[in-house]
């Protein structure tokens, strides 16, 4: 299956100033997909359909403004310092990590296992925070900065299941090749079954999709308008994830998720923000 291209405004002769800005900024999510290794020019060209000279020119403009940097050794492009500065400023208004930090720490303390906060980035899930519990045996399938296709992992699956059906189809199509090549434990059919089960019970179960003995429970978080804000999850070795304990952890996740969503609603109300609305699914 041919890899879908990132949607960017099309060329119409010489790019007008406003279009050029839009297209340059549209590259930032692509550059930020892998915050550690970055992305090469060839992959950017493949995903966007831009010519190499156009992609390079747009990247140079982002580098000039400090939004993008280039690794001198690998030549990969990464998010620059200015994106961190702007993100820090935006966090004062939309600070999910600040809002959810106590919930993640509380889940780790209550369960004794490892708790995570993840966010959606296009067709992927990105882990942004982790808290270790007291149980001495810890899972290693997810670390801060790790990125998995939406659906791979408990928090990731909960976010995928919370999307509208048409968005789910787009995500599965976009990730089809990656799933086949790098995630043999998670076929498309298994993901679709996982989506259905997640919607039916209100939480997601990862039965060792990445590592066989690493199981997890996840719950999506929503912004006031219904859009996905992220997901909370708890991971443990498979022997600790008995059916009864799955239900227990799911209840704790629900309680913590409701706390986070209440805080988000207050935060948005205080700043007068109006998040775009999406069709809600029962997760």
Q: How would you characterize this protein structure?
A:
The chain folds into 2 domains: 17-86, Winged helix-like DNA-binding domain superfamily/Winged helix DNA-binding domain (Arc Repressor Mutant, subunit A), CATH 1.10.10.10; 95-271, GAF domain (Beta-Lactamase, 2-Layer Sandwich), CATH 3.30.450.40. Helix content is 47%, strand content 17%. It is built from 10 helices and 8 strands. It has helices spanning 17-26, 28-31, 41-48, 52-64, 81-94, 96-111, 154-161, 165-182, 188-201, 243-271, and strands spanning 68-70, 77-79, 114-121, 124-131, 147-149, 204-207, 214-222, 228-237. Strands 5-4-3-8-7-6 form a 6-stranded antiparallel sheet, sandwiched between helices. A hairpin with a 6-residue loop joins β1 (68-70) and β2. The longest helix is centred in the C-terminal third of the chain and has 29 residues, at 243-271. The chain is globular, with a radius of gyration of 19 Å. Mean pLDDT is 85; it is low at 1-16 and 276-280.
CATH class of the largest domain: Alpha Beta
User: Mean pLDDT, as a whole number?
Assistant: 85
Under CATH, the topology of the largest domain can be stated as Beta-Lactamase
Report the count of strand segments. 8
The sequence of SSEs as H and E is: HHHHEEHHEEEHHHEEEH
Number of domains: 2
Distance between the termini: 30 Å
What would you call the structural class?
alpha+beta
**For the CA atoms, what is the radius of gyration?**
19 Å
CATH architecture classification name of the largest domain: 2-Layer Sandwich
Query: If helices are DSSP runs of H or I spanning 4 or more residues, what is the number of helices?
Result: 10
CATH superfamily membership of the largest domain: GAF domain
| Main beta-sheet strand count, sense and barrel state | 6 strands, antiparallel
Strand content: 15-25%
- In the sheet with the most strands, the strands line up as 5-4-3-8-7-6
Helix content: 40-55%
State the low-pLDDT regions, or none.
1-16, 276-280
């Amino acid at each position: 299956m041919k890899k879908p291209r990132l949607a960017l405004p099309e060329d119409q002769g010489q790019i007008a100033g406003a279009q050029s800005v839009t297209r340059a900024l549209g590259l930032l999510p692509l550059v930020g997909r892998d915050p550690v290794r970055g992305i090469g020019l060839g992959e950017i060209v493949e995903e966007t359909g831009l010519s190499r000279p156009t992609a390079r020119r747009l990247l140079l403009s982002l580098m000039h403004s400090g939004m993008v940097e280039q690794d001198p050794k690998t030549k990969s492009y990464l998010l620059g310092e200015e994106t961190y500065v702007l993100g820090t400023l935006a966090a004062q208004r939309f600070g999910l990590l600040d809002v959810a930090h106590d919930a993640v720490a509380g889940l780790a303390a209550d369960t004794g296992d490892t708790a995570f906060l993840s966010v959606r980035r296009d067709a992927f899930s990105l882990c942004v925070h982790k808290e270790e519990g007291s149980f001495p045996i810890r899972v290693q399938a997810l670390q801060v900065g790790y990125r998995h296709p939406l659906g791979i992992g408990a928090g990731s699956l909960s976010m995928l299941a919370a999307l509208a059906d048409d968005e789910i189809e787009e995500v599965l199509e976009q990730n089809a090749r990656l799933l086949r090549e790098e995630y043999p434990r998670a076929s498309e059919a298994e993901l679709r079954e996982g989506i259905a089960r997640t919607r039916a019970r209100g939480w997601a179960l990862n039965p060792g999709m990445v590592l066989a003995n690493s199981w997890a429970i996840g719950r999506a978080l929503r912004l006031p308008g219904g859009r996905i804000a992220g997901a909370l999850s708890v991971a443990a070795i498979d022997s600790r994830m008995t059916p009864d304990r799955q239900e227990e952890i799911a209840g704790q996740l629900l309680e913590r998720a409701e706390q986070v969503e209440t805080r988000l609603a207050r935060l948005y109300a205080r700043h007068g923000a109006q998040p775009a609305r999406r069709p809600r699914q029962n997760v």
